[in-house]
From TrEMBL:
The keyword Metal-binding does not apply. Coiled coil: none annotated. The chain crosses the membrane at residues 6-25, 32-49, 61-85, 92-112, 118-139, 151-169, 175-197. Residues 8-82, 93-167 form the Glycine transporter domain. It is a multi-pass membrane protein. Pfam families: Gly_transporter. Keywords: Cell membrane, Membrane, Transmembrane, Transmembrane helix. It is found in: Cell membrane. It comes from the Bacteria. Its main location: membrane. This is Trimeric intracellular cation channel family protein. Belongs to the UPF0126 family.
Length: 218
């Protein structure tokens, strides 16, 4: 059961993240190879980092190459349909939110299945969900979504992972915990985009003027 759930989450996460990578390529007006590059990079980046950090003998997409084909399929679909979208950036944001809501449970499920504790489970969910999108945005010379001021992105991932841990701590079925993880993640991210939910940001104060000292001096 756990293995089937993890496989389903991996395929879903790869496909939806690949859609976001391909949408970035469409905004850059790249050719089909560029679409495939961004789609595959975004789709497998997070889980590849996860597998490397956890010392897996075989990276997940090496063990199951069909996942790469799923990302390529997403790239081709976007290449021929992106022009139909009213706003590719808005579509990118919503697909990214959906991908986040799938990838966090995938990372959480991976770590719980491996027997790790709460801290590692949380970090596995966050890394799995964020690393691929971070690579996508950095290479496309965009400000990463997870670093944009006031955005609930990493917070949404943390919230989803904690929801899954809470379900497990209460002895509820593991599958329900993964569903709660995805729903909480998506709700927080969607709330940030639609209603402007955000955490307080740091506001610096003007430096004090001290006689004889230049405030601009390092």
């Amino acid at each position: 059961m756990l293995a089937d759930a993890q496989l389903l989450l991996d395929y879903a996460s790869v496909f939806v993240f690949a859609l976001t990578g391909a949408l970035v390529a469409s905004r850059g007006q790249l050719d089909i190879v560029g679409f495939i590059f961004f789609a595959v990079l975004t789709a497998v980046g997070g889980r590849t980092v996860r597998d490397l950090l956890f010392g897996r003998d075989v990276i997940f997409w090496v063990a199951r190459p069909s996942l790469i084909l799923a990302a390529v399929a997403a790239a081709i679909i976007v290449f021929f349909t992106a022009h139909l979208l009213e706003s590719r950036y808005r579509a990118l944001l919503w697909f990214d939110a959906l991908a986040l809501a799938v990838a966090v449970p995938a990372g959480v499920d991976f770590a719980i299945s491996a027997g790790y504790g709460a801290i590692i489970v949380t970090m596995a969910g966050v890394i799995t969900a964020s690393a691929g999108g971070l690579m996508r945005d950095v290479i496309s010379n965009e400000v990463p979504l997870l670093l944009k001021q006031g955005e609930l992105y990493l917070t949404a991932a943390f919230g989803g992972a904690l929801a899954a841990l809470a379900f497990d701590a209460c002895g509820l079925p593991h599958g329900w915990g993964l569903i709660a993880c995805g729903l909480v993640t998506f709700a927080l991210r969607a709330g940030s985009m639609v209603w402007g939910w955000k955490l307080p940001v740091y506001r610096s104060s003007p430096p004090k003027v001290i006689p004889g000292i230049d405030p601009n001096e390092p």
